[in-house]
Fold Nickel-binding periplasmic protein.
Amino acid sequence: MEYAIKNTFLLIWIALFSQTFCNKIATHFSDPMVPVFMSIRRLFTVWATFIFTLPLTGFAHSSASLNIAWPVNVGELNPHLYTPNQMFAQSMVYEPLVQYQADGQVKPWLATHWDISKDGRVYTFTLRHGVRFSDGEPFNAQAVVANFQAVLDNKARHSWLELVNEIESIQATAPDKVVLTLKHAYYPLLQELALPRPFRFIAPSQFVDGTTKNGIKKPVGTGPWVLKETRYGQYDRFERNPGYWGEKPAYQQITVKVIADPTSRAMALQTGEVDLLYGVNGIVSPDMFDQLSHSKRWVTQVSDPVETSMLALNSSRFPTSDLSVRQAINHAVNKEMLVQTVLYNTQQPAKTLFAPNIPYADIQIQPYQFDLNLARQLLEKDGWHLPEQGTIRMKNGQKLSIDLVFTGTNAVQKSIAEVIQGDLQQAGIQVSLIAEEESSVFARQRNGRFGMIFNATWGAPYDPHAFIGSMRVPAHADYQAQKGLPDKKIIDAKIKQVLLTSDATKRRELYRNIMTRLHDDAVYLPLIWISSWAIASPSVGNLHFAPMTSDIPLNQFKPVRN
């Protein structure tokens, strides 16, 4: 851009000099020569005008860039690993065999066709012809097998996804044919192949020592974007993949600016530093979103509910190890008031772990109603009493005090945590708020160092099968929260059954049993059925929401031309 501006000023000077030069020369010649020099002057003018428009054209082209804000850098973008790799950025660079759609179905993507054996164990994929990685390497069956093998080489890390455990073999039978054989029929296979990780494809030349579990050389995928530059703590810059096989994005460049604080993100939007804020709430504070949505300067949009935000209550750590405490927490939080006062009615209060529009979740479960008196009664009955002139309940000499861990950069979590702290205080429960960086929060989820911690279901296409399947993995908050439950082994066994059964009726009954047990154990406090938010400058044009909540549909955004 700076180069284009300098050239523009240079060419303006040339144009003005040309006209002035011709005028002065013409005045020193006889009248018959004046038309000649005037013609020369007009020629210079036309030439200069033409040249002058070139940098402007280049400027307009170079301005086809989009600046967005994100709390952290996108990571090294290993398609087969997790945090700190950001899922939306992994999806920009890497692609799946099949793509998830808004209607819950999958469509051909890097695979154009697939056949399934009668017993449901063997899938034969036909690959799209003419696809290359952004470095020019061909995408073929050998590349697919190499990537699958890289995932399987790190099986312990990926075992939360049941598909990884069910793969028996992966073979290339032709340059465009891959045969995937399972141990058992597995109904969510195609949905799990569509996930943003781990079954996406990096150029095999970028493996380190023949695998990806210890890192990659460079993030080289088949997707529409290429990561060009990273400055830690500042930004990540993506450019359009010139050799992309599909429809190319309208934007030439995407800059992801690292802005950790939600207030600073809002200011960056208002000052024009960024053009778009997008995400599953927390991108700005709820009051700021409400303010921006009522301003004609910005375009704002709210998606349909996509996932559930909740607290995981640690059943193996005192005092949330008491069922009465977990039940009381569920009755003591006024979700309706929370949504009104904190979220400005931009979200819906959650009654259960999954919204009823989620597959298999339309079951009759009696929600925990807000009832402060009932919460107090449950605690009293279980021996949690208020001391004289005290405000915090005690039992056997121990205070009813619980820590609540949240991500400090998430404005919504902070606001909700403060409301929950106040609500539980009314029931005699002390809540200590712990705000930490995202990586530290994830570490606590993995090792169980929490009493209550923010968590969320994963949205489409993970819910319910992948999210429930991950409850058996110790590195997940759900496992840590549930491991103190008397029926934890039963829950895990039923999860295994539900993922492998090919009987739809039996599958529905198993899901009902699992969800009912988790509800009765009160191991979660469902808070809100959350929607994605998008806030943009009018120059971004129409806003779209991706079928998967982890994605940002950057390919669909088109700049408005003035």
Q: What stands out?
A: The chain has 18 helices and 21 strands. The chain has a mean pLDDT of 89.
